[in-house]
Amino acid sequence: MKNIEAKTILSKLNDSDWLFGISYSMNLYRGCQHGCIYCDSRSTCYHVENFDELEVKQNAIQLLEKELRKKRVKATIGTGSMNDPYMPIERKLGLTRRALEVLVKYRWPFHIITKGVLVERDIDLLKKASEVYAAVSFTVTTANDDLSRLIEPGAPVSSGRLACMKKLADAGIYTGVTLMPVLPYINDSLVEITELIHQCKENGAQYVLVWLGMTLREGQREYFYAGLDKHFPGLANTYRQKFGKDYSCAIPEADQKMAEITKLCQKLDLPMKMNFYNPPRVVQLDLFG
Ligand code: SF4
């Protein structure tokens, strides 16, 4: 692990994100301890030199205060796309917690995406933040804990994440599941996805965001195939033949499966879209009315 000085902490997205409702991304760390074999953040296009050496942006909190003070219009800040804000090191460093304290102080909306059950520690802050807007999405890719241990070796198992989501939901926090990526031939059976969606509902999910595929980019692909060779011998060749250098890989029969999933979510009254931050309307005083 190494401490670094960052130049900025909030990155403005070109377009507001239609899936997660995020306008800014915030990464307090670089690299991630969860070690998912399919991790997109390893792609060379992100220019993270050594993803396995964790870097801590030690001036992150000062930068965050400074940058928030300069902004006039509030919009949702997302964290958890390039690394997990609740990976094991966070228990010791508390950087995510301190960042949330700043967001609560300045009343900024945020959306956390995580596989980490440590988020439970911050329920007090999440409750305060909910007066403005706070969403916590748990990434859960399989209902099978043994499979989650293989493909997400450094993260808490799926059942632990779902149980943590239940605690947040019971505390009144807006929370749900990002069911992605779905890896071709690994976690893509409709029976298993159906089971997982039922578990999401039982554990208090207020939405489930489903993507029946994965990215496979330079850098990410090599690491993923090494993981396949270790845990699913022969499967990397199937991927090579079927997907070649494709950037986005859909699971077999994705459309039919999505239609079944949509029906199931409707039956369970489980939205497949999340509610976004709704800025308060500015009331115009009509001085001459
Ligand atoms: S939790 Fe996310 S960022 Fe971390 S290794 Fe897994 S996929 Fe990558």
Sequence-ordered SSE layout with sheet pairings:
Blueprint: E1 2-4, E2 10-12, E3 24-26, E4 29-30, E5 55-57, H1 60-70, E6 77-79, H2 89-93, H3 95-105, E7 110-114, H4 123-129, E8 134-139, H5 145-151, H6 158-170, E9 174-179, H7 190-202, E10 208-210, E11 213-215, H8 220-231, H9 235-243, E12 248-250, H10 254-268
Parallel strand pairs: 1-5, 3-6, 6-7, 7-8, 8-9, 9-10
Antiparallel strand pairs: 2-3, 4-5, 11-12
Helix pairs in contact: 1-3, 3-4, 7-10
Bound molecules: iron/sulfur cluster.
Distance between the termini: 63 Å
Number of helices: 10
Mean pLDDT across the residues is 95
Low-confidence regions: none
Beta fraction? 5-15%
Number of strands: 12
**Overall body shape:** globular
What is the N-to-C order of secondary-structure elements (H for helix, E for strand)? EEEEEHEHHEHEHHEHEEHHEH
Helix fraction? 25-40%
Q: What structural class do helix, strand and pairing data support?
A: alpha/beta
| Rg over C-alpha atoms, rounded to the nearest angstrom | 19 Å
Strand order of the largest sheet: 2-3-6-7-8-9-10
Bound molecules: iron/sulfur cluster
* Largest sheet descriptor: 7 strands, mixed
Give a written overview of the molecule.
- The protein has 289 residues and is an alpha/beta fold.
- Helix content is 36%, strand content 15%.
- It is built from 10 helices and 12 strands.
- Strands 2-3-6-7-8-9-10 form a 7-stranded mixed sheet, with helices on one face. It has a 3-stranded mixed sheet with strand order 1-5-4, with no helix packed on it. Strands 11-12 form a two-stranded antiparallel ribbon.
- α7 links the parallel β9 and β10 (208-210).
- It is globular and about 55 Å long.
- The model has no long low-confidence stretch (mean pLDDT 95).
- The structure holds iron/sulfur cluster.
